[in-house]
Amino acid sequence: MKNELKVYRAKHDLTQEDLAKAVGVTRQTINALEAERYDPSLELAFKLAIYFDCSIEDIFSYDSN
């Protein structure tokens, strides 16, 4: 799954730690998401979209490869 999480985090001038605390995960989880080594749970995807006031599809897109 491709994502724009790093872009959204940068636009809001947040560290990985700041974002992790805001959505209730570890900094390592945010790092793994940004590196596209981990796909978020549906709950986490919603939390991130709500935090950034956008849709899930704005942050995440499906990549069949």
UniProtKB/TrEMBL annotation:
Q: Which Pfam families match?
A: HTH_3 (PF01381)
Domain (HTH cro/C1-type) spans 5-59
List, alphabetically, the InterPro entries matched. Cro/C1-type_HTH, Lambda_DNA-bd_dom_sf
Gene3D superfamilies, per the entry: lambda repressor-like DNA-binding domains
**GO function terms (MF aspect):** DNA binding
What keywords sit in the KW lines? DNA-binding
Concerning PANTHER family, the annotation shows: DNA-BIDING PHAGE PROTEIN, TRACRIPTIONAL REGULATORY PROTEIN-RELATED-RELATED
Q: What is this protein called?
A: HTH cro/C1-type domain-containing protein
